Amino acid sequence: MSFGMKIWGADGALQMDENSFTMRVVMSTLVTFPAAGKANQDFSVPGSDATNSVAIVIPVGPYNEGSARQFETEMLPGVARVYNHTRTFAASLSTSGTMRLMVIRFA
Amino acid sequence: MSYGLSFINNNDKVVIDSEFARLTVVCSGRYAPTQESGLGSTTYFPRVITSVEPPLVFCRPDTGGIAGLTAMQVIGSAGNWTGFYVRAYDVNTNQPNGRYFAATFGAQPVSQFGLRLWDGTTKLLFDSGTPCAQFTRAFQNWNYLRYENSATGGTRNFYSVPFNFPENEYLLINTFGMNMLTGSASGRLVKTLWDFNAGVLYAVTDGFSNPFAFFMPAVFAKINV
Q: B133 at the A interface (CB within 8 A)?
């Protein structure tokens, strides 16, 4: 390595060097669909698109396995879109509740 | 950024700076069967994770045979995450044995030496004791491969992404928990299936009125260089 930075942990393992890629969170927010009618919500994430970021939704904590249903995401240019149904599938049911949206940028 | 530290890698990407939180590894270890006749696994973190958001948990099942994970739940509450639960794919696959790491955006002050970095609002962004997870690959969606009928009359759809099972790459599994929607109220189970024999990593959905449409990103990361 001719320049840059390396970081080792207490166990001696090299944690990071000049070839490392990290992930940063460019958005972390709660998303609520108050009612189960089919809907989607847009969240502005400037600079993010499908080539450099992913949008994920995760449960905000423990959930009821029998009744809870996931939202779904779509990463668009500058926008993370969250659906409470399965897009492109007309027969999809829809859901309500709150999940956490995270947009992770990796490039 | 007007002050602080910025670390740029050989691809001219900012790896660490004093502006944005990176995904950092708060703890790591192994998960193993603890309940449900060896199908279920509860793992308690060696230290409580104090982030508001649930930690992102990445898993790497032990190599060999066919492994799978589903029904993932993070245990605890905001500011006090204590562990996670995960279940094997089914009775015909490996029991839940493997390695995991739990990560949050932002660091925890655990190290006695090294580097510590805060942002302009005094949020701790980096600590040598909670290293940054290393991004390896991500996919917006899984690719549909095939389906089969399940014994209960539902359908099981198989999807995959390009993955060659490096020992040090872990898959984000928080999304492999809560059921996804279908045309039926019972929804569809979402599972990962690691077929080490065939060298294929699957996402599998299982339910009634189960669409081929499946929108879930795949995110992979590793702990060390």
A: yes
| Cβ atoms of A16 and B15 closer than 8 Å | yes
How do residues B9-39 score in pLDDT, each as one tens digit?
A: 887 777 788 878 889 999 999 999 999 999 9
- In chain A, which residues have their Cβ closer than 8 Å to the Cβ of B13? 21, 107
DSSP B36: G
Residue among B204, B190, B198, B191 nearest B165 (CA): B198
**B contacts of A75 (beta carbons < 8 Å):** 140, 217
Whether chain A has a CB inside 8 Å of the CB on B129: the answer is yes
pTM: 0.93
> Is residue B193 within 8 Å of B204, Cβ to Cβ?
yes
Find the residue in A nearest to B52 (Cα).
Answer: A60
- What is the C-alpha to C-alpha distance for residues B159 and B206, in angstroms, rounded to an integer? 12
A95 at B interface, C-beta within 8 A: yes
Contact present, A96 and A35 (Cβ < 8 Å): yes
Q: What is the ipTM of this complex?
A: 0.91
Counting one residue from A and one from B, how many pairs have CB atoms under 8 Å apart?
A: 187
Residue position matching structure tokens 């007309």 = A90
Question: pLDDT tens-digit profile of B107-145?
Answer: 888 888 888 888 888 888 888 888 888 899 999 999 999
In this structure, what token pair is assigned to residue B138?
A: 């991500």
Amino acid sitting at position B97:
N
Rg (CA), chain A: 18
The chain B residue lying nearest A88, using CA atoms, is: B213
